[in-house]
Design brief:
Layout (H helix, E strand, L loop, with lengths): L7 H21 L4 H13 L4 H9 L29 E4 L2 E3 L8 E5 L2 E5 L7 H11 L7 E5 L5 H4 L2 H8 L2 E5 H9 L17 E3 L4 E4 L2 E7 L8 E9 L2 E8 L10 H21 L3 E4 L2 H4 L1 H7 L15 H28 L1
Parallel strand pairs: 4-5, 5-6, 6-7, 11-12
Antiparallel strand pairs: 1-2, 2-3, 3-4, 8-9, 9-10, 10-11
Helix pairs in contact: 2-3, 2-11, 3-11, 8-11
The structure holds zinc ion.
Length: 341
C-alpha cells in the first residue's frame, strides 16, 4: 500500500498528538496472550535452543503431510552435499551416525549395539552402515533399532537393518499402523523401505542389551506413536543422563486437542528429565540441536573443559518448555480463531 502525499502529514500529526495517549492505553491494555506465550518460549530457549525455537515458534510446519510418493523414492534423492555429515564418537559408548539434518545414534553396550533412529532410505546405507564401519563398529552387532516415530526421515533405514542384520525394530503401535496403512510413503510397489512389524513400544518399556537400558516414554503429538528416550552415556567414565526428544514439528492435524496432547508430552519429558537429572539433551533432528557442530567439538576438547553436549539440567528442562511454549502459541492461535468465528 502507498500513502498519498496529501494524507502523509495528517498521519504524522495523528501519531505525534496521539502518541502519548496510545502509550498510556498500551500500558493499561491486557497483554496479547499469543505475544506473551511467544515471549515465554523465547525466554525458555535462551541461546541454547534457537534451532528448535525457530522451527517450532517462528516457522512452524503445519498440517499433515499427504500420503504421496516422496521424490526420493522416485529416484530423485537430494544431493549428498545437502545431508552428509561425518560420523563421530561423541561419548565413550555413543556414536553419531546421522546426517546434517537428521540424527542417528549408535549406543554401544556390553552385548551389541542399540541404534536410535535411521535417517532416510537414500542415506542410511552411507551414514549408518558406512559411518559405523568407519568408526570401527560392526553393523552386524546392532540388535535393536529404536525408531522415535514412523516418518520417512527417521525410519528410512529400518528395513535395511532388519533385512541385512536381523536387528529388531522397536516403534509405537500407532506408527506401525501408520506405516502399514501408508500406500505411497512407505509402500512403493516393492515395499522397498517398509519394515515388517516387529517390537511394539509401550510407555515405560526398557530396551535392555547387556549392561545398558533405554527407557521409552510415550510422547504422542507429532505422531500418535512418537516416543522419547532416557538413557545413560559415559564421558571418560563419568555417567551422564540423556533426554532424547522424539517427534518434533507441528505437521499433524492442527486441532486444539492435538496441541494439548503435544503439550502434555513435553511436560512428561520435562518431568522425566528432572527425575533422571538429565544434563544432556539430544533430538532426532541434528539441524535443530546442532549435533554435528557439537560432535566436531568433542575431539578437540581439553582436559577439564565441559562436554559440548552436557548443557546442564536447567537447559534440558528449558528445551521441553520451549517446545511446550511453541505448541501453546499455536494452540492459542486456534483458540482465538475459534472465538472469532
Ligand atoms: Zn516426523
Amino acid at each position: 500500500m502507498r500513502l498519498s502525499q496529501s494524507i502523509l502529514p495528517a498521519v504524522a500529526l495523528a501519531i505525534a498528538v496521539g502518541g502519548g495517549a496510545a502509550l498510556a492505553q498500551q500500558a493499561a491494555a491486557p497483554a496479547d496472550p499469543i505475544e506473551t506465550a511467544l515471549r515465554a518460549a523465547k525466554t525458555f530457549a535462551g541461546l541454547d535452543h534457537t534451532g528448535t525455537l525457530a522451527a517450532l515458534c517462528v516457522l512452524p510446519a503445519t498440517g499433515p503431510g499427504a500420503d504421496t510418493l516422496p521424490a526420493y523414492l522416485a529416484g530423485a534423492a537430494p544431493a549428498r552435499s545437502t545431508w552428509y555429515a561425518d560420523p563421530a564418537k561423541v561419548f565413550d559408548n555413543l556414536y553419531f551416525v546421522g546426517g546434517s539434518i537428521h540424527s542417528a545414534w549408535a549406543l554401544n553396550t556390553s552385548d551389541g549395539i542399540i541404534l536410535i533412529d535411521t535417517v532416510y532410505s537414500y542415506n542410511s546405507e552411507e551414514l549408518i552402515v558406512g559411518g559405523m564401519t568407519k568408526l570401527g563398529l560392526d553393523p552386524k552387532l546392532v540388535k535393536y533399532v529404536i525408531i522415535t516415530h514412523g516418518h520417512g526421515d527417521h525410519v528410512g533405514g529400518a528395513k535395511l537393518m532388519q533385512d541385512r542384520f536381523g536387528a529388531k525394530i522397536v516403534m509405537g503401535a500407532a506408527d506401525w499402523d501408520f506405516i502399514e496403512q501408508s500406500k505411497e510413503r512407505f509402500g512403493t510397489a516393492d515395499n522397498s523401505i517398509k519394515p515388517r512389524r516387529d517390537v511394539v513400544a509401550t510407555d515405560g518399556m526398557k530396551v535392555t542389551l547387556g549392561d545398558t537400558s533405554v527407557t521409552l516414554i510415550a510422547t504422542p503429538g507429532h505422531t500418535q506413536g512418537a516416543f522419547s528416550l532416557s538413557f545413560e552415556v559415559k564421558d571418560q567414565g563419568r555417567p551422564l543422563m540423556v533426554a532424547y526428544s522424539g517427534g518434533t514439528a507441528f505437521n499433524f492435524v492442527n486441532t486444539i486437542a492435538n496441541f494439548q496432547t503435544y503439550i502434555e508430552s513435553q511436560r512428561r519429558m520435562a518431568e522425566m528429565a528432572e527425575r533422571t537429572k538429565a544434563t544432556v539433551i539430544m533430538t532426532n533432528h541434528s539441524a535443530y540441536d546442532n549435533a554435528v557442530g557439537k560432535a566436531q567439538m568433542v575431539p578437540g576438547r581439553k582436559a577439564g573443559q565441559p562436554h559440548p553436549f552436557e548443557v546442564g539440567q536447567d537447559a534440558v528442562t528449558r528445551y521441553f518448555k520451549t517446545m511446550e511454549g511453541c505448541a501453546r502459541v499455536a494452540q492459542l492461535k486456534l483458540e482465538m480463531a475459534a472465538k472469532a468465528n
